[in-house]
Design a protein that fits this description.
With 120 residues, the protein is an all-beta fold. The chain contains no helices and 11 strands. The strands form 2 sheets. Strands 2, 4, 5, 6, 9, 10 and 11 form a 7-stranded mixed β-sheet that branches. It has a 4-stranded antiparallel β-sheet with strand order 1-3-8-7, with no helix packed on it. The mean pLDDT is 94.
Amino acid sequence: QVQLVESGGGFVQTGDSLRLSCAAPGRTFSFYAMGWFRQAPGKERDFVAAISQNFGLTRYADSVKGRFTISRDNAENTLYLQMNSLKPEDTAVYYCAARPSLDYGSWGYWGQGTQVTVSS
């Protein structure tokens, strides 16, 4: 059974930083590409960033390039999203997800989400 649990969200001001974490099952974590998505009220769930299984290859949405950094610690079975220079437009529920490959396939596993609110 795959369970993903996000944490680290909160209320911050424009320009502040947050670090989100996603805890995953240990036995198979390293075999999955991991990603972060976000969904603002009334909007579609959008891709934010993704990282490969064990080489650190990454993908980022244009809206977060240069500000967000995705990383993973396979030894700790944890995915991270370091968010710097936060903007009100970043306000959303953030979800972590997993799939077998970085650039294609279905994101079949999801967490419950963690709320990030950025005020101006």
